[in-house]
């Protein structure tokens, strides 16, 4: 079973952009005016290629066999047992064989999100004699404690570390990473470049 982690905000905004582009492409084709319409299509195409590469494609995927890091133009597969360590700063950094590091594009933690997580993890001071906040159930309290002081990136980093340790305990083979190019991103980029070239030629 696969588990995918993305930047929810970037993913949602990317789909809003695609809807905006679809409407504008229809309008430009329906009311085609020559050079100006082609230039507008080229601009939309270039921006859409950028949005696809940095907002829609990046994902961190957990599979039974290992970790899949989908970055804008490359996909890296790491068997769980080949992961040596995981550190989290702004991004999740997965350390593997020969001191190599895979930097995952998602989820990332901003300075604002980290500050918010630290405030959430700090003990609250009760003011007054009466409790005004609702009492949490045991499971809810356990979830709050598990996420206390942690961002989403910290939590995903912990999950990667736990799976890697479990794989090593099972004596799974630490196979090398497999890296492949993202042909879908390359195709979108080539299409955008073709539109730009066409707009320049017509101009």
TrEMBL record:
Listed transmembrane segments: 12-32, 38-56, 179-202
Stretches assigned to the Low molecular weight protein antigen 6 PH domain: 57-103
Record InterPro entries: CFP-6_PH
Entry keyword annotation includes Transcription: no
Disordered: annotated segments: 114-135
The entry's keywords: Membrane, Transmembrane, Transmembrane helix
Pfam families in the record: bPH_6
Superkingdom of the organism of origin: Bacteria
Keyword Transmembrane helix set for record: yes
Name assigned to this protein: PH domain-containing protein
């Amino acid at each position: 079973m696969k588990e995918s982690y993305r930047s929810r905000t970037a993913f949602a905004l990317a789909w809003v952009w695609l809807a905006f582009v679809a409407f504008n492409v229809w309008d430009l084709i329906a009311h085609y005016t020559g050079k100006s319409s082609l230039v507008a299509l080229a601009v939309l195409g270039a921006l859409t290629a950028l949005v696809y590469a940095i907002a829609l494609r990046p994902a961190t995927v957990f599979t039974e066999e290992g970790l899949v890091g989908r970055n804008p133009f490359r996909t890296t597969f790491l068997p769980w047992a080949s992961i040596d360590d995981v550190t989290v700063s702004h991004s999740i950094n997965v350390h593997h064989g020969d001191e190599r590091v895979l930097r995952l594009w998602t989820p990332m933690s901003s300075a604002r999100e980290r500050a918010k997580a630290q405030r959430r993890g700090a003990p609250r001071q009760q003011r007054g004699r009466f409790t005004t906040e609702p009492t949490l159930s045991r499971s809810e309290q356990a979830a709050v404690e598990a996420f206390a002081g942690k961002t989403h990136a910290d939590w995903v980093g912990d999950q990667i570390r736990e799976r890697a340790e479990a794989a090593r305990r099972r004596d799974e083979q630490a196979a090398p990473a497999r890296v492949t190019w993202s042909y879908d991103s390359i195709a979108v980029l080539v299409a955008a470049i073709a539109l730009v070239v066409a707009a320049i030629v017509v101009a």
